[in-house]
Amino acid sequence: MSDEGLEGRRPIKRALVSVYDKTSLVELGQGLAAAGVEIVSTGTTAAVLAEAGIAVTKVEDITGFPECFEGRVKTLHPKVHAGLLADLRKPSHARELAELEIEPFDLLVSNLYPFRETVARGGVPDAVIEQIDIGGPSMVRGAAKNHPSVAVVVSPARYGDILDAVNLGGFTLDQRKALAVDAFVHTASYDIAVASWLGNVYSPTDDGSGFPEWLGASWHRAEVLRYGENPHQRAALYRAEHGPLGLAQARVLHGKAMSYNNYVDTDAARRAAYDFTEPCVAIIKHANPCGIALGVDIAEAHRKAHACDPVSAYGGVIATNRPVTLALAEQISEVFTEVVCAPGFEPAALDLLTQKKNLRLLECAGAHPGRTVETRGISGGLLVQTVDDIESDGDDSANWTLQAGAAADLATLADLDFAWRASRSAKSNAILLAVDRATVGVGMGQVNRVDAARLAVWRAGDRSVGAVAASDAFFPFADGLQLLIDAGVRAVVEPGGSIHDDEVIEAAQAAGITLYFTGTRHFFH
């Protein structure tokens, strides 16, 4: 019969402890032993406890069956699982345990083999497969299913809670329910990692697409945000439990809590800044660039980026691909800015910027390291595509084809290369004008390329004279290019590929400007 006490507490008299991660294991064992809890354990877990002088019963002493097959079989035995799965609320289960001479467990402490870590280290398939835990997930799931009778803990971070519960007469029913949820999340995330790896390695539906038949992922809620894109929308930040780190794992050094829109804009800013290897600053508003620029140092890059559109930069988000220096911090402090995201901050820069009460300062390493695919939710499903990086053949100016005018000199080619890379960060349709490797006018998010060109020229004003331009996709007709020519643009780079390319080339030849085709498009929706 159940011996539940107040609040559904079940005293912890007998615990099964089987962990790969030995963090705080000895301290846990000492606490359980001091409280008179019988400890049953396996393999190296039992050895660590015994070496610390803690009384422990080995699983094989209970099952009468030795560990075998290099530890593949340890706990897969009725005397283990019956002790975890017997529902002690039911007298019939208690009678069966007695008839079978099996003692129940009140607590399971278990964590699983380091599967993800082995994959991350580049383990060969056989080594990775050995880290697919079988007994651990079986025990964890069994104990979690039977949470009315058994508490299950899967993280060393909860060992203090165990010792508190032991001294209070056990976990309450509500606590055991919460622990069961943690346990099923733990095994679900583990199974997703295993299934994803096996699908990628074995490709059982190898149809040449490069995309698996099944996709799985796991995220953990990190923060509930004040609201979403608009105040009437609710929002939260979730952190991936798989794949490379990114903005979601950034360290917030100072300022107000990040908003939904802050995260969207900061991700766009980092995407822009890390398209370049030289010192770069991107200033973003509503996921579009107010200015992007390169400089001999990060402070110069910011001055040039800010000069593109100072009005729009007010209240914007700044991302850099270099640590923030004091010189840059002094410039930023003069302008209202929502977020500064950088791989680091010099101490003097941090001291200055933290004087701005509401300015959010984020420390975050390079943008999307190792990420190869990206997803976007649609009603009823998910779109998946490979990441639009800036490393295709068409992104190398050495592979561009000259269609009109004289070949660009080195300085002009450098500006064209900058404009081409920067145009990837503007929402389509996009036209970007640049001078001295800095934006001077950006036309973005327009429904036709003529309006995008008109907007870029208007924003640049007199700076369009002598500038270079990039178009993220081809000019369908010559009218968009003609607007740039009339504004004084002297060189243009675009993908080409329109059925009216001849008309576009003729316009460039008639104006005597340089025109390159890349053969690569960079739509951004």
Could you please describe the fold and organization of this structure?
This protein is of the alpha/beta class. The chain is built from 19 helices and 21 strands. It has helices spanning 25-34, 43-51, 59-63, 78-85, 91-100, 115-120, 125-129, 135-145, 159-168, 173-202, 260-273, 298-308, 310-313, 326-332, 347-353, 410-423, 449-460, 478-486, 501-511; strands at residues 14-19, 38-41, 57-58, 107-111, 151-153, 219-225, 235-240, 251-254, 280-285, 288-294, 316-320, 337-342, 360-363, 373-378, 381-386, 401-404, 431-434, 439-443, 468-471, 491-494, 514-517. The protein has a 6-stranded mixed β-sheet. A 6-stranded mixed β-sheet has the order 16-21-20-19-17-18. Strand 14 (373-378) and strand 15 (381-386) form a beta hairpin. Helix 18 (478-486) runs parallel beside helix 19 (501-511).
Short key terms for the protein model shown above:
21 strands, six-stranded mixed beta sheet, alpha/beta, 525 residues
How many whole angstroms does the radius of gyration measure?
31 Å
Q: Assign an overall shape.
A: elongated
Beta-strand share of residues: 15-25%
Q: Helix/strand-derived class?
A: alpha/beta
Count of separate DSSP helical elements: 19
Main sheet properties? 6 strands, mixed
How far the N terminus sits from the C terminus, by CA atoms, comes to 62 Å
The stretches of 5 or more residues where confidence is low (pLDDT under 50) are none
Binned, the helix content reads 25-40%
Largest sheet strand order: 8-13-12-11-9-10
Number of E strands: 21
Mean pLDDT: 91
Quaternary structure state of the chains depicted? single chain
